[in-house]
Write a structure and sequence with these properties.
Length: 171
């Protein structure tokens, strides 16, 4: 009976360790973001919007702040802009789950502005800074307000994937 009890206890511990997942540091940060009350933006938001995706991704998309749909659902880059991003990712051979997507600001600012139609001179360029590689592109929402940018945006994402592959091949 003692051996049986010890066997059951060991199997229970193994089962619990597999079932009870310990949250990663990123998951803890995401939970903290959802309940954050450190600034006045928490008073006007519906949901804080932490990042989502592969925490070990080679590619991280960083937007400015959540828009209306993101605020309503608590997820970054959804709605029409998110669909544009998904299409561009697919066009470049990536998936939403293979990248990490976030915003600098985690709550929608009141009267969030519509993206400007101005074209950035730096889109499609790589910037090396502090041992990091940054690729500059338009926000997917810009393609909603300026249809001419849709192909430019898709080509930027393809270029990003190609440049990433070159960097990986060097290493």
């Amino acid at each position: 009976m003692v051996l049986f009890n010890q066997f059951c206890k060991i199997n229970q511990e193994v089962l619990e360790s597999k079932v009870m997942k310990v949250p990663s540091s990123l998951e803890i940060i995401q939970q903290d973001i959802k309940i954050c009350k450190k600034c006045e933006l928490c008073n006007t938001r519906n949901n804080a919007v932490p990042g989502i995706g592969d925490e070990n991704a080679d590619v991280v998309f960083i937007g400015e702040a959540p828009g209306k749909n993101e605020d309503l659902h608590g997820e970054p880059f959804i709605g029409t802009a998110g669909k544009r991003l998904d299409d561009a990712l697919e066009n470049a051979g990536l998936t939403r789950s293979s990248v990490y997507i976030t915003n600098i600001v985690k709550c929608r600012p009141p009267n969030n502005r519509v993206p400007r139609k101005e074209i950035s001179k730096n889109h499609g360029q790589i910037v090396y800074k502090n041992n990091r590689v940054y690729f500059i592109s338009f926000h997917p929402a810009a393609t909603i307000y300026n249809q001419k940018l849709l192909d430019v945006f898709k080509n930027d994402i393809k270029k990003l994937v190609n440049e990433l592959q070159k960097i990986k091949n060097k290493n």
